[in-house]
Hints:
The protein is of the alpha/beta class. It has helices at 17-27, 68-71, 86-90, 110-115, 128-143, 146-154, 184-193, 211-215, 223-229, 249-253, 272-281, 320-338, and strands at 4-11, 32-39, 48-51, 58-61, 76-79, 97-100, 119-121, 176-180, 199-203, 219-220, 232-235, 259-263, 284-289, 309-311. The protein has twelve helices and 14 strands. The strands form three sheets. It has a seven-stranded parallel beta sheet with strand order 10-9-8-11-12-13-14, sandwiched between helices. Strands 2-1-5-6-7 form a five-stranded parallel beta sheet. Helix 1 (17-27) packs across helix 12 and helix 5 (128-143) packs across helix 7. The chain is elongated, with a radius of gyration of 22 Å.
Amino acid sequence: MTDRLTIGIIGDGFMQPGFFEAALREKLPGRDLDIRSLEIDWPLRLKSTKYDPTLPVGEFVGRPEDYFGFLADLDILITHLAPITASSLDHAPRLKAIAVSRGGPVNIEMAAARARGIAVVNTPGRNASAVAEFTVASLLAETRNLIRGHMTVASGKFGREFYHYANTGPELCELTVGIVGYGDIGTRVARLLQPFGCGILIYDPFKELTPEERAAGFEKADLDELMARADVVTLHPRVTPETRGMISRERIAMMKPGGYIVNTTRGQVLDYDALYDALVSGQLRGAALDTFEPEPPPADWPLLTLPNVTLSPHIAGASRYSAIKAATMIAGDIALILDDKPPLYPCK
């Protein structure tokens, strides 16, 4: 690269370009930086596209051609949601590195980047703490009638029916929580729940418990055993061919009467029609859902009408700290790449 670096930032209303620029200038003091920024109008106006069979990427905003002109003179690209495909890279002949502020580079055509020798880094775990906290908060809100109580008071009533024994919920200390997926988020959920006195079951075929976790009473279980034993099932796997639909009608039927499901990962892992039936029949007592399939759910979606569901609009990872953390992680890896050192968070 030349002494003067041209860095392009494609940000948005959450991952704002200024966060990246501030982190870059802190991590790259004394370097001659030409920083160019583009802020797309997401999430307020533009919608993200999860899957498009015409493109080899997912979970993006806009079309590749929307960004061709911006890419032309860049040495380094930082993006959150722009789709970067082989055709994008054809318009970026100088590009040496791409940094994507996501847990996975789903909006980057990795094969095309590798073929051109372009380094790609991302930000694994950037919002793990945020999602874990939100998961526990959602569980508490659903089990303890927090949102339903709020709605009655806000409507001018006082909701004394929630003090009737039949309408009260359990305390966390009574519950065994089954955690499906034990990566950055799942491990944090377990640690947050531990002081409440929950029993903890773990399903993750790729992770083993530490001696400390075993001493704390955490147990590994296969998925069917976890579904049968847990009072609460909380979902944290990545979407893969193996995890799509893994919480199926058959597995929901294995759960104890009166159980709960919490989903703050992706809608594709859960059979929502089966969940609806289990909630209506009374087999399950409640659910807390931050993600859906489809997303957003249609206005006439039956699940939206149920009183025993706590809903949120896919915001579990939306914390101020996670945005700043992602920008800091990216700036650190760019500094390493420029010093010809291996980055901490490479995508392969």
